[in-house]
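Example record

The entry below shows one chain as it appears in the dataset: sequence first, then C-alpha cells.
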Amino acid sequence: MQLLEGGTVVDADGVLTADVLIDDDTIEIVGDASDANVDERIDVSGQFVVPGMIDTHVHLMMDARPDAESVQGDSEATLAYRAAENLRNQAEAGVVATRDLGAPATVAIDARDAVADGTLLGPRVQAAGQNVVMTGGHGHWFGREADGPAEVRKAVREQLKADADAIKCMATGGVLTTGAQTGAPELTPTELEALVETAHTAGRSTAAHCHGTEGIKNAVQAGIDSVEHGTFMDEAGAEMMAERDTYWVPTLSALKGIVENSDAGIPEQAVAKGEEAGQRMAAAWEYALDAGVPIAMGTDAGTPFNDHADAAHELAYMVEYGLDEAGALEAATVNAADLLGLDDTGMIERGYRADLLVLPENPLEDVRAWQSPEQVFLGGEQVR
C-alpha cells in the first residue's frame, strides 16, 4: 500500500485537506490515514492531488507532423510503434484514459489490448476502429468508406466485429483532408440514423466529427453521443445539444496547432480552412456556454503540432475561451469519464481507481498547473 500524505485533494466535489491511501490499484482511504500500515509514504504536503486527465479524442497513429495526410505512406507496423510511443507520452503527461477516434485496420484496437495486458505502458484505451466516412470524404484514407444506410450499417457491424469500443463517423468535411469542405454535410441524416441505431443496439457509444452547422444538427437529431469539434455551432444547435445531453468535445488544441504554426509546413489549404474555423470558434463557445452544453476534454492529438504529450494545454485553451477552472477540471475528469462510460475513475473517492496526479499548484486557481505533474499514478502504479 502507498500513502500520499499531507496533500490537498481537488476534484469535482471541491477541495479537501486529506491523505490518500492506495491499495493495489484502488483508492482505499481519503482522509486521515496517518496510522495506516503502509509499504511507502509519499510526502505531498503543499501539493495538490487530482484525478488524472481523460482525453476523449486522439489519433494514436499520428505524430503531430505538419502534413497529416503524409501518414498514408506508413506501414501498419510503423503506425503501431508510433502508437506505443504516444501512449507512453500520454501516461507521463497525466492522461489516465484515452479514446482513439480513428486509425487504419485494428491499430488502435490492438494498442488497447496491449495496454490492458501489460505489454505497453499507457492510459486505458477505448478504440473506435476505423471511422465511417462517405466515399472520398474527410479522412477517407484511414476510414471505412460507406454510402447509403445499408452500407453504413454494414460498416458499423464490421467495427463491432473487430471489437471496437465506440463508433466514429465523419458527419461533415474537415480541415486536414485535401478537397474536403470543412462545414459541408457528408453523411446524410438517414445514414447517421443507421449508424447510431446499429451502434446503440450493440451497446456502443457514438461520436461524430462535425464542423458545419447543418452537420451538427443532423448528428444530434440522429442521437449521436458526442459532437467532435463543433466549430460552426449556432445557437439552435447548442440548444439542441443541451436538451439532449449531447456532449461537445471542442478539440481546441487541433485548431491552435494549425493557426499558430501556419508557416511551418502545413499544407496551404489546411491553413486556410483552419484559420476560418478558428475565427468561428469563439461564437460556438458563447452559444455552448449560454445553453449549458455538457463539455468533455478532447485534444485531437496527433494532428499538426498537437502532440500527445501536451494534452494539458487543452484545459488552458478551454479557460481562454470562457470555461472557468472548475469547469475545465470537470471536462477532463467526471464529464470525460461519463462520456466514456467509466464509472471507476474521475474522482478521488474510496473504491475508485487510483488514477491520480500530484500537481505543484491548485488547478482551480491556475489551470496551467495541469501541465506540470510532479507525480502520475495509473491504477496505483507510479509512472512519473
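Notes for this example: The chain is about 35% helix and 20% strand. The first strand starts at residue 2 and ends at 5.
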